[in-house]
Design brief:
235 residues; mainly alpha; 7 helices; 87% helix; elongated
């Protein structure tokens, strides 16, 4: 029977796609939050130094916040995974029949008959029963507990990667053109990352592109308006 290996491979592929989608979302956060910050400051002043200071502060704070949030979230998930694996191990040692019956039910929920599911469990054997149970009921692999440090680092790197574009655009563009050039660059990059995220998730690409670019444009308009109003007020 090849059911269990196929399910494990499917879970591994799903995990990789989830990581990639998380990276895309992290990059989106970096693009939107940093571009909104620097555009807002640029609307309030024509000098470069305040924009640079605000941008760098936002990049550092955003990357740390993303990493910390991901670490806490994934640590909780990892604790839950370890608890599930530990519980199943104890059940396997103390009540093997119960573990087998739960695995049979899991296979039956996939459409197998009771007899076929029981034969599959028998053929899997004691050595692979725990792996099959984890993959069937929880879509987990015994040796693939998520690492919170890896998740935190990946989240911070994704955020930094997204933050690079608006920072470079606002700082390197001519003063008179820096805001419109940054807005265009941000909308193009959001369209690309939004489309990629939708494609990975199997969602309609155009709808996702419109949604993410509209959200980014709204954020830019809000901070630009606030910066412009504050700049006029201070002047």
């Amino acid at each position: 029977m090849s059911t269990a290996p196929e399910i494990v491979e499917s879970a591994e592929l799903s995990g990789r796609l989830n990581w990639l989608r998380a990276g895309v979302l992290g990059a989106n956060d970096g693009i939107v939050s940093i571009s909104a910050t620097v555009v807002g400051v640029a609307a309030a002043t024509s000098t470069v130094t305040p924009v640079l200071l605000a941008g760098v502060a936002a990049v550092v704070a955003g990357a740390i916040s993303m990493a910390l949030g991901e670490y806490v979230s994934v640590s909780s998930a990892a604790d839950s995974q370890r608890s599930i694996i530990s519980t199943l191990r104890r059940l396997r040692d103390t009540d093997r029949h119960l573990v087998d019956e739960e695995l049979i039910k899991a296979y039956m929920r996939q459409g197998m008959s009771h007899e076929t599911a029981r034969r599959v469990v028998v053929e899997i054997g004691e050595d692979n029963a725990l792996k099959a149970h984890l993959s069937q009921r929880y879509h987990l692999a015994e040796d693939e507990v998520v690492n919170p440090w890896h998740a935190a680092l990946a989240s911070a790197v994704a955020f930094l990667a997204g933050a690079v574009l608006p920072m470079l655009t606002i700082l390197l563009s001519p003063i008179a053109w820096r805001i419109p050039v940054t807005v265009v660059a941000v909308l193009v990059s959001l369209a690309l990352t939004g489309g990629l995220g939708a494609k990975l998730g199997g969602a309609p690409v155009m709808r996702a592109v419109v949604r993410v670019t509209s959200g980014g444009l709204l954020a830019l308009a809000a901070t630009y308006g606030i910066g412009l109003a504050l700049g006029v007020a201070v002047a």
